[in-house]
Amino acid sequence: MKQHISFFRISIFFGGETTIMGRGKTVMRRIENTTSRQVTFSKRRNGLLKKASELSVLCDGEIALIVFSSTGKLYEFCSTTSMQKTIERYQKYNKEVQENSQQLKYEAVNLAKEIENLQTSQRKLMGESLESCSLDELQTAETQLEMSLLNIRTKKNQLYREQIEQLKQQEDQLLEENEVLWEKRSGITHFYVENKSLELRNIMIQRSMYLIDYNFDDVLAAKPH
């Protein structure tokens, strides 16, 4: 017959802090009983000072620890020879952090304003929110749009030229292939020859359409306003 073993957790209540032996956790709240509070403070204070000392030795850290009891008594630990120097180092570091934080806030505000101005400018270029614009602002927006349109047309014409050049190269290549095919037409089916000729005609038509669009854009760009 199997024996069942039960494990009991023993809780001790000291007027506020509940300590659970074994697995469990401590409920953190003020200990109301004065004697228990003083005993707990003494034990935990000594443990805290010991941990600070161990941390400074093991990890070579600069540590300053200040503790005031409920009665106002001071307990301190410093891993260096001077508590004042460690405090001054902390104050200097804290000051630099605050200055950097202020600088970041200032940059964030300026960045937000810049984003807002860009969004406003974009809306005006889109023809929105024009009610508050003056004549000079509208003239500036119109000039910007004209410059943008000129840049777009220039880029489009460049792409047209590149497409036309590619089509011309394909056309020359197909012409060469067509000549070879006609030379060898006795050994090539009539259907294949006609197919290559049709492909050549389609490329020539497409190239002509690009040339028409390209010349039409040049006419629009040269047309006086």
Helix and strand layout, with pairings?
Layout: E1 11-14, E2 17-20, H1 34-59, E3 64-68, E4 74-78, H2 83-125, H3 135-183, H4 190-222
Antiparallel strand pairs: 1-2, 3-4
* Order of adjacent strands in the largest pleated sheet: 1-2
Largest sheet: 2 strands, antiparallel
Strand content: 5-15%
Rg calc? 43 Å
Please provide the ordered H/E string of secondary-structure elements. EEHEEHHH
Q: Return the structural class.
A: mainly alpha
Mean pLDDT over all positions? 77
Helix content: 55-70%
Spatial shape: elongated
Number of contiguous helices: 4
If you had to describe this structure to a student in words, what would you say it looks like?
- By secondary structure, the protein is mostly helical.
- It has helices at residues 34-59, 83-125, 135-183, 190-222; strands spanning 11-14, 17-20, 64-68, 74-78.
- A hairpin with a 2-residue loop joins β1 and β2.
- The longest helix is centred in the C-terminal third of the chain and has 49 residues, at 135-183.
Task: List key phrases describing it.
two-stranded antiparallel ribbon; 225 residues; mainly alpha; 8% strand; disordered N terminus; two-stranded antiparallel sheet
Summed up:
This protein is mainly alpha-helical.
